[in-house]
Amino acid sequence: MWPIYLKGLLISLALVCSIGVQNIFVFNNAIANKLSRSILFASFIWIADTALTVIAFLGMGAIISTHPVFKIIVMAVGGLMVIWIGYGIIKSAASFKFDLAQNQLTTKRAFIMSWIVTWANPQALIDTSLMLGAFRSTLTEAQVLPFMLGIVSATALWFFDITLILNLLKDKLPNQVLVAINVISGFIVMGYGFYLGWNVLHFLFF
Fold first, then answer.
1. Residue 131, domain extent
2. Is the pLDDT of residue 170 over 70?
3. Which of 69, 73, 51 is nearest to 60 (CA)?
């Protein structure tokens, strides 16, 4: 079943490498925390992402897509959350100094934020569900487990490896670069939140 496992691995790597809210959360925590905490927070993201993948694989995204009112509510709430997250990143960047004590999230807050940045995107749930549903239709029952193991191991490789690399390189980066990373990340996240909001308005009034 190795070919099926590798298929899931490569598909998942292609998806997870794109710059999104999850990756920005991982990037920022990797440069703002000591390695042990960065790895812990990356594990939170991986757990939340694995849960999302399993739910999507079981068809939850299809359920959301067939109930327009529920979809609009989820997108509206998710958009507001994403805008709030982006604003928080920009605000913290204004006074950013590389100081572990200053920039660390509490473990509880990091855990909650991991689930928010993963689940605040209903469109990702729908798209992931449709994609995995399409692949599911090509698999036998015996192939489902190795395929899913490939999916979740790819996200683990990405989140933990990128955390390790950025954490090891952070001391070599000037403070101005770290500030710029946070500001750009914040605007990207806020932009995505406004995009979700625009989709809600477009659905309601156009």
1. 2-12+20-205
2. yes
3. 51
